[in-house]
Amino acid sequence: MSRTFAHIAAFVLDRPAADMPASALRCAAWLLLDTVGVAAAAGPMEAGIIARDTACALYGSADPALTARMMFDGRPVSLAGAGYAAATQIDNLDAHDGYNPCKGHIGVAAVAAFCALMQRAPEMTGPEALAHLVVGYEIAGRAGKALHATACDYHTSGAWNALGVAAMAARIRGHGPAMLREGLGIAEYHGPRSQMMREIASPTMLHDGSGWGTLAGLSAAVLAERGFTGAPAVTVEDAPEFWTDLGRDWLVEDQYIKPYPICRWAHGAIDAARDVVLAHKLGPGDIAHVQVNSFAEAVALFSGLPRTTSEAQYSLPFALAAYLVHGEIGLEQISGRGLVDADVIAMHRRIDVARAARHDATFPACRMADIRITTTDGRILASGDTHARGDRHRPLSEAEIAAKFTELAAPVLGPARGEALCQGLVGLTAPRSRLGDLAPLLLSPA
């Protein structure tokens, strides 16, 4: 067993909540709240319905010890099926957290798996539960950086967040180091190495591969329990430079939280427009033209008029047009009648997007853009280079995160259940809190 793996195993299996910074546990609680809100809002969407019905059809379990109920649905399926359904549901409302260095997302898989795994350990305290979640973030983030540094293409998050899921499952289910090693190897081998830019070019319900990543990670842990062996994870054992800071630097504290349910690559442009509109008190009728400059990946986002919610979430010009017309971007603007809003379509025609080398140079550490708005009275209003809100550089306040949760969850769960869930999830940092007390709020049908 390598020194690197021994270090990882000690962190995953033995690091107690008491030896983690309070700030890391608190971040985990707010990330959990944010992702659960996205899961609630995504429940009625077509992709979530299909994923849950498919889990019932394909991923059931005859073993009560490996059965879990699906989030905001209640039907029992296998542990892996419940994680797959929740992650696919969350993934299809692009409002969940992300990690800049990996150009992808951890919480979508970690929280989905966590909500399945917690059902087998109802007595765990809130801090213990948050420590498990922190482990998922810390392992997934480093696996993602290692894989991006060694793989030949840009792959979806499911390729690497599967390892965070497998590690979290090993910790919660009481695995030893040898079993953890097999589980990580199986998860890495079967994690979906799907090409992200294919989904960017033709947006669909595939999104970021995290449903399959969660399925692979949970399945890997169970396979390891049964004696199935896996090749050692290359991202773990052949990339020691990415693991030396494990347990010292806390990646869970470096996640971004999205203010809009849109691909993060578009957020710099939206926030640049927001700054100009608010500073100059512009309305839609004041805007004659918008020039956006951003990094190459943002420019590659879907440029046409979207026909589906998936296309709308991966479209910079449509999302920006929706913001300029409505002053907000929520599910209403990217679905149903929002896709055929005549005012948004007219604004879309006034937006041009171009690549800027200086914004390329800051990616993926930042999501930068600048805009110039030409007004109907001939003024040219420039934003300057703008960093997207929601990460350490421009953080959202806890009040803003709670408001986002309420906006997403309350229409589906009702105000009372939404408020109880908000208070309960944030309250998991309290020493005597119990995760099991939240099960009815998380698992009962919406």
Automatic annotation (TrEMBL):
<protein>
    <submittedName>
        <fullName>MmgE/PrpD family protein</fullName>
    </submittedName>
</protein>
<dbReference type="InterPro" id="IPR042183">
    <property type="entry name" value="MmgE/PrpD_sf_1"/>
</dbReference>
<dbReference type="GO" id="GO:0016829">
    <property type="term" value="F:lyase activity"/>
</dbReference>
<dbReference type="InterPro" id="IPR042188">
    <property type="entry name" value="MmgE/PrpD_sf_2"/>
</dbReference>
<feature type="domain" description="MmgE/PrpD C-terminal">
    <location>
        <begin position="260"/>
        <end position="417"/>
    </location>
</feature>
<dbReference type="InterPro" id="IPR045337">
    <property type="entry name" value="MmgE_PrpD_C"/>
</dbReference>
<dbReference type="InterPro" id="IPR036148">
    <property type="entry name" value="MmgE/PrpD_sf"/>
</dbReference>
<dbReference type="InterPro" id="IPR005656">
    <property type="entry name" value="MmgE_PrpD"/>
</dbReference>
<dbReference type="Pfam" id="PF03972">
    <property type="entry name" value="MmgE_PrpD_N"/>
</dbReference>
<dbReference type="InterPro" id="IPR045336">
    <property type="entry name" value="MmgE_PrpD_N"/>
</dbReference>
<feature type="domain" description="MmgE/PrpD N-terminal">
    <location>
        <begin position="7"/>
        <end position="235"/>
    </location>
</feature>
<dbReference type="Pfam" id="PF19305">
    <property type="entry name" value="MmgE_PrpD_C"/>
</dbReference>
<comment type="similarity">
    <text>Belongs to the PrpD family.</text>
</comment>
